[in-house]
Amino acid sequence: MALLNPPELRASMMAVLALYLAQSPGHNDEFQRTIDAVSPPSLSDAPDKHQLDAVKNLTSMIELGLASRDGDRVHLSPEATKAARKGHAAIGRVIRGRVLAPELNSAPWGSQEGARDLTNALAWFLSFGPAAAPARMEGETPNARDLQEADFGRRQGSGDDGGSWPISNGTRWTAFQRWACSLGFAWRSPSGRLIPDPTPALRDSLNDVFGSSSHLEARAFVERVAAHLPVLETGSCRLLVEENWNRAEDQSGDLSVPTSDALRRLEASGALVFEDRDDSPRVLRDDGTTFSHVARGRQVR
Fold it and tell me: Is 0.70 topped by the overall pTM?
Protein backbone atom coordinates (compact mmCIF):
# COMPACT_ATOMS: atom_id res chain seq x y z
CA MET A 1 0.00 0.00 0.00
CA ALA A 2 1.08 3.56 -0.74
CA LEU A 3 -0.97 6.70 -0.14
CA LEU A 4 0.65 9.04 -2.68
CA ASN A 5 0.16 6.55 -5.50
CA PRO A 6 -2.40 5.91 -6.91
CA PRO A 7 -3.17 9.64 -7.02
CA GLU A 8 -6.92 9.02 -6.64
CA LEU A 9 -6.49 8.35 -2.92
CA ARG A 10 -7.66 11.20 -0.69
CA ALA A 11 -9.13 11.72 2.74
CA SER A 12 -12.25 13.46 1.44
CA MET A 13 -13.43 10.42 -0.51
CA MET A 14 -12.68 8.16 2.44
CA ALA A 15 -14.84 10.45 4.59
CA VAL A 16 -17.74 10.14 2.13
CA LEU A 17 -17.45 6.35 2.15
CA ALA A 18 -17.30 6.33 5.96
CA LEU A 19 -20.43 8.47 6.21
CA TYR A 20 -22.30 6.10 3.88
CA LEU A 21 -21.28 2.97 5.78
CA ALA A 22 -22.01 4.60 9.15
CA GLN A 23 -25.67 5.09 8.22
CA SER A 24 -26.04 1.62 6.69
CA PRO A 25 -27.72 -1.08 8.81
CA GLY A 26 -25.09 -2.64 11.04
CA HIS A 27 -22.54 -0.11 9.70
CA ASN A 28 -21.76 -2.41 6.79
CA ASP A 29 -22.81 -3.09 3.21
CA GLU A 30 -21.77 -5.03 0.13
CA PHE A 31 -18.57 -3.75 -1.46
CA GLN A 32 -20.12 -3.02 -4.86
CA ARG A 33 -23.27 -1.50 -3.42
CA THR A 34 -21.11 0.87 -1.38
CA ILE A 35 -19.28 1.91 -4.54
CA ASP A 36 -22.56 2.36 -6.44
CA ALA A 37 -23.96 4.53 -3.64
CA VAL A 38 -21.15 7.10 -3.70
CA SER A 39 -20.37 6.81 -7.43
CA PRO A 40 -23.56 5.72 -9.25
CA PRO A 41 -22.93 3.63 -12.37
CA SER A 42 -25.41 5.79 -14.31
CA LEU A 43 -23.06 8.79 -14.20
CA SER A 44 -21.36 7.70 -17.42
CA ASP A 45 -21.33 5.05 -20.11
CA ALA A 46 -18.15 3.59 -18.58
CA PRO A 47 -18.84 3.01 -14.87
CA ASP A 48 -15.75 0.83 -14.51
CA LYS A 49 -13.67 3.94 -15.16
CA HIS A 50 -15.43 6.60 -13.13
CA GLN A 51 -15.98 4.21 -10.20
CA LEU A 52 -12.28 3.40 -9.99
CA ASP A 53 -11.78 6.41 -7.69
CA ALA A 54 -14.23 5.03 -5.11
CA VAL A 55 -12.92 1.48 -5.48
CA LYS A 56 -9.34 2.51 -4.75
CA ASN A 57 -10.32 4.64 -1.76
CA LEU A 58 -12.50 1.93 -0.22
CA THR A 59 -9.71 -0.61 -0.72
CA SER A 60 -7.26 1.78 0.94
CA MET A 61 -9.66 2.30 3.86
CA ILE A 62 -9.54 -1.44 4.46
CA GLU A 63 -5.74 -1.43 4.31
CA LEU A 64 -5.60 1.50 6.75
CA GLY A 65 -7.86 -0.27 9.22
CA LEU A 66 -10.73 2.17 8.84
CA ALA A 67 -12.87 -0.69 7.58
CA SER A 68 -12.67 -4.45 7.21
CA ARG A 69 -13.89 -6.86 4.58
CA ASP A 70 -15.66 -10.13 5.22
CA GLY A 71 -16.39 -11.83 1.92
CA ASP A 72 -18.38 -9.34 -0.12
CA ARG A 73 -19.30 -7.11 2.82
CA VAL A 74 -17.39 -4.10 4.10
CA HIS A 75 -17.68 -3.21 7.80
CA LEU A 76 -16.79 0.26 9.07
CA SER A 77 -14.50 0.14 12.11
CA PRO A 78 -16.05 1.06 15.49
CA GLU A 79 -13.72 4.06 15.77
CA ALA A 80 -14.70 5.37 12.33
CA THR A 81 -18.39 4.70 13.03
CA LYS A 82 -18.24 6.76 16.22
CA ALA A 83 -16.43 9.57 14.40
CA ALA A 84 -18.90 9.56 11.50
CA ARG A 85 -21.71 10.41 13.93
CA LYS A 86 -19.82 13.61 14.81
CA GLY A 87 -19.16 14.71 11.23
CA HIS A 88 -16.34 15.30 8.78
CA ALA A 89 -13.90 16.86 11.25
CA ALA A 90 -14.03 13.83 13.54
CA ILE A 91 -13.60 11.46 10.60
CA GLY A 92 -10.57 13.48 9.54
CA ARG A 93 -9.02 13.00 12.97
CA VAL A 94 -9.52 9.24 12.76
CA ILE A 95 -8.00 9.10 9.27
CA ARG A 96 -4.99 11.09 10.50
CA GLY A 97 -4.60 8.73 13.43
CA ARG A 98 -4.54 5.70 11.16
CA VAL A 99 -2.06 7.30 8.74
CA LEU A 100 0.28 8.02 11.67
CA ALA A 101 -0.26 4.68 13.44
CA PRO A 102 3.02 2.89 14.34
CA GLU A 103 1.97 -0.37 12.70
CA LEU A 104 1.61 1.44 9.36
CA ASN A 105 4.98 3.16 9.70
CA SER A 106 7.37 0.36 10.59
CA ALA A 107 8.84 -0.19 7.11
CA PRO A 108 12.42 0.95 6.35
CA TRP A 109 13.44 4.08 4.48
CA GLY A 110 12.33 4.13 0.85
CA SER A 111 9.59 1.53 1.39
CA GLN A 112 6.12 1.95 -0.06
CA GLU A 113 4.51 -0.26 2.58
CA GLY A 114 1.85 1.03 4.92
CA ALA A 115 1.68 4.81 5.13
CA ARG A 116 5.44 5.27 4.95
CA ASP A 117 5.47 7.25 1.68
CA LEU A 118 3.08 9.88 3.03
CA THR A 119 4.60 10.19 6.50
CA ASN A 120 8.11 10.52 5.02
CA ALA A 121 6.82 13.33 2.83
CA LEU A 122 5.03 15.07 5.71
CA ALA A 123 8.01 14.85 8.05
CA TRP A 124 10.33 16.26 5.38
CA PHE A 125 7.96 19.05 4.29
CA LEU A 126 7.30 20.16 7.88
CA SER A 127 11.02 20.80 8.40
CA PHE A 128 10.78 23.91 6.18
CA GLY A 129 9.53 27.36 7.03
CA PRO A 130 6.89 28.87 4.73
CA ALA A 131 9.39 30.82 2.62
CA ALA A 132 11.78 27.88 2.15
CA ALA A 133 9.19 25.12 1.60
CA PRO A 134 8.79 23.74 -1.92
CA ALA A 135 6.15 25.56 -3.95
CA ARG A 136 6.09 23.04 -6.80
CA MET A 137 7.69 19.76 -7.85
CA GLU A 138 10.17 21.33 -10.27
CA GLY A 139 10.83 24.57 -12.08
CA GLU A 140 11.03 27.90 -10.30
CA THR A 141 12.66 27.65 -6.88
CA PRO A 142 12.03 26.62 -4.22
CA ASN A 143 10.97 23.31 -5.72
CA ALA A 144 10.76 19.80 -4.32
CA ARG A 145 13.17 18.28 -6.83
CA ASP A 146 16.09 20.58 -5.99
CA LEU A 147 15.43 20.50 -2.24
CA GLN A 148 15.25 16.71 -2.17
CA GLU A 149 18.42 16.37 -4.21
CA ALA A 150 20.18 18.65 -1.71
CA ASP A 151 18.84 16.64 1.24
CA PHE A 152 19.05 13.08 -0.09
CA GLY A 153 21.32 13.18 -3.13
CA ARG A 154 20.36 12.07 -6.60
CA ARG A 155 17.22 10.00 -6.57
CA GLN A 156 17.79 6.27 -6.18
CA GLY A 157 15.35 3.72 -7.56
CA SER A 158 13.44 3.60 -10.78
CA GLY A 159 9.91 4.04 -12.03
CA ASP A 160 7.41 5.30 -9.47
CA ASP A 161 8.69 3.43 -6.42
CA GLY A 162 9.68 6.63 -4.61
CA GLY A 163 13.28 5.54 -4.15
CA SER A 164 15.28 7.70 -1.74
CA TRP A 165 13.05 10.76 -2.13
CA PRO A 166 9.91 11.31 -0.07
CA ILE A 167 8.11 12.82 -3.10
CA SER A 168 9.43 11.35 -6.32
CA ASN A 169 7.41 13.06 -9.07
CA GLY A 170 4.71 15.55 -9.94
CA THR A 171 1.88 13.04 -9.57
CA ARG A 172 2.89 12.31 -5.99
CA TRP A 173 3.41 16.02 -5.30
CA THR A 174 -0.20 16.71 -6.32
CA ALA A 175 -1.47 13.89 -4.10
CA PHE A 176 0.73 15.06 -1.24
CA GLN A 177 -0.74 18.55 -1.30
CA ARG A 178 -4.25 17.14 -0.86
CA TRP A 179 -3.22 14.86 1.98
CA ALA A 180 -1.20 17.52 3.83
CA CYS A 181 -4.17 19.90 3.91
CA SER A 182 -6.73 17.21 4.75
CA LEU A 183 -4.69 15.90 7.69
CA GLY A 184 -4.16 19.33 9.22
CA PHE A 185 -0.49 19.83 8.38
CA ALA A 186 -0.69 22.52 5.69
CA TRP A 187 -2.95 25.02 3.94
CA ARG A 188 -2.98 26.84 0.64
CA SER A 189 -2.24 30.54 0.38
CA PRO A 190 -4.43 32.77 -1.85
CA SER A 191 -1.80 32.31 -4.57
CA GLY A 192 -2.13 28.52 -4.29
CA ARG A 193 1.16 27.88 -2.51
CA LEU A 194 1.26 25.07 0.04
CA ILE A 195 2.17 26.41 3.49
CA PRO A 196 3.56 24.01 6.12
CA ASP A 197 1.48 24.50 9.27
CA PRO A 198 0.65 21.75 11.79
CA THR A 199 -1.60 24.02 13.90
CA PRO A 200 -4.89 22.17 13.14
CA ALA A 201 -3.36 18.75 13.81
CA LEU A 202 -1.68 19.98 16.98
CA ARG A 203 -4.85 21.64 18.25
CA ASP A 204 -6.80 18.42 17.65
CA SER A 205 -4.21 16.46 19.67
CA LEU A 206 -4.05 18.62 22.81
CA ASN A 207 -6.56 16.54 24.77
CA ASP A 208 -4.46 13.43 24.15
CA VAL A 209 -1.18 15.25 24.76
CA PHE A 210 -2.21 16.57 28.18
CA GLY A 211 -4.45 13.70 29.27
CA SER A 212 -5.46 14.40 32.86
CA SER A 213 -2.62 16.90 33.36
CA SER A 214 -3.07 20.65 33.26
CA HIS A 215 0.66 21.47 33.11
CA LEU A 216 3.62 19.74 31.46
CA GLU A 217 7.33 20.37 31.47
CA ALA A 218 8.47 21.60 28.07
CA ARG A 219 10.42 18.50 27.08
CA ALA A 220 7.63 16.19 28.20
CA PHE A 221 5.22 18.26 26.14
CA VAL A 222 7.38 17.93 23.01
CA GLU A 223 7.74 14.18 23.57
CA ARG A 224 3.98 13.71 23.98
CA VAL A 225 3.26 15.74 20.87
CA ALA A 226 5.73 13.57 18.96
CA ALA A 227 4.05 10.42 20.23
CA HIS A 228 0.72 11.54 18.74
CA LEU A 229 2.11 13.41 15.72
CA PRO A 230 5.32 11.51 14.86
CA VAL A 231 6.02 13.63 11.77
CA LEU A 232 6.99 16.50 14.13
CA GLU A 233 10.20 16.97 16.13
CA THR A 234 11.56 13.87 17.94
CA GLY A 235 8.74 11.76 16.48
CA SER A 236 9.62 8.41 14.93
CA CYS A 237 8.73 9.50 11.38
CA ARG A 238 10.71 12.75 11.65
CA LEU A 239 13.72 10.92 13.10
CA LEU A 240 13.74 8.47 10.19
CA VAL A 241 13.86 11.33 7.69
CA GLU A 242 16.59 13.11 9.66
CA GLU A 243 18.65 9.92 9.78
CA ASN A 244 18.60 9.77 5.97
CA TRP A 245 19.17 13.38 4.95
CA ASN A 246 22.48 15.13 4.32
CA ARG A 247 21.80 18.35 6.23
CA ALA A 248 24.22 19.75 8.74
CA GLU A 249 22.92 19.77 12.30
CA ASP A 250 20.45 22.61 12.77
CA GLN A 251 21.58 25.05 15.45
CA SER A 252 18.58 27.37 15.20
CA GLY A 253 16.50 25.64 17.88
CA ASP A 254 14.83 22.50 19.13
CA LEU A 255 11.70 23.27 17.14
CA SER A 256 11.26 24.02 13.43
CA VAL A 257 9.61 27.14 12.08
CA PRO A 258 6.26 25.40 11.39
CA THR A 259 6.06 23.88 14.88
CA SER A 260 7.19 27.11 16.56
CA ASP A 261 4.62 29.09 14.58
CA ALA A 262 1.90 26.58 15.48
CA LEU A 263 2.66 26.95 19.19
CA ARG A 264 2.53 30.74 18.89
CA ARG A 265 -0.86 30.51 17.19
CA LEU A 266 -2.20 28.24 19.91
CA GLU A 267 -0.86 30.62 22.54
CA ALA A 268 -2.49 33.60 20.82
CA SER A 269 -5.81 31.76 20.67
CA GLY A 270 -5.65 30.98 24.39
CA ALA A 271 -5.37 27.21 23.91
CA LEU A 272 -1.87 27.08 25.45
CA VAL A 273 -0.01 29.12 28.08
CA PHE A 274 3.80 29.05 28.17
CA GLU A 275 6.14 29.71 31.10
CA ASP A 276 9.92 30.14 31.10
CA ARG A 277 11.40 29.27 34.50
CA ASP A 278 15.10 29.40 35.30
CA ASP A 279 15.05 26.22 37.38
CA SER A 280 13.80 23.86 34.66
CA PRO A 281 15.07 22.50 31.32
CA ARG A 282 13.95 24.62 28.39
CA VAL A 283 12.92 24.06 24.79
CA LEU A 284 14.27 26.47 22.18
CA ARG A 285 11.98 27.84 19.47
CA ASP A 286 13.25 28.79 16.03
CA ASP A 287 13.36 32.52 16.95
CA GLY A 288 15.59 31.99 19.97
CA THR A 289 12.86 32.24 22.62
CA THR A 290 12.50 29.45 25.16
CA PHE A 291 9.89 27.87 27.40
CA SER A 292 10.14 25.45 30.30
CA HIS A 293 6.49 24.62 30.98
CA VAL A 294 3.23 24.46 29.04
CA ALA A 295 -0.25 24.75 30.50
CA ARG A 296 -3.66 24.28 28.98
CA GLY A 297 -5.59 27.44 28.37
CA ARG A 298 -9.19 27.32 27.31
CA GLN A 299 -10.61 23.82 27.16
CA VAL A 300 -9.96 22.15 23.80
CA ARG A 301 -12.70 19.94 22.44
Answer: yes
Counting DSSP H helices and E strands in the chain, the numbers are 13, 10
Q: What are phi and psi of 26, to 5 degrees?
A: 75, 10
E strand or H helix that includes residue 284 = strand 283-284
Counting as low any pLDDT under 50, the low residues of the chain are 300-301
Question: What three-state secondary structure class fits 272?
Answer: strand
> CA end-to-end span of the chain, whole Å?
33
- Write out pLDDT tens, residues 255-291: 999 999 999 999 999 999 999 999 889 999 999 999 9
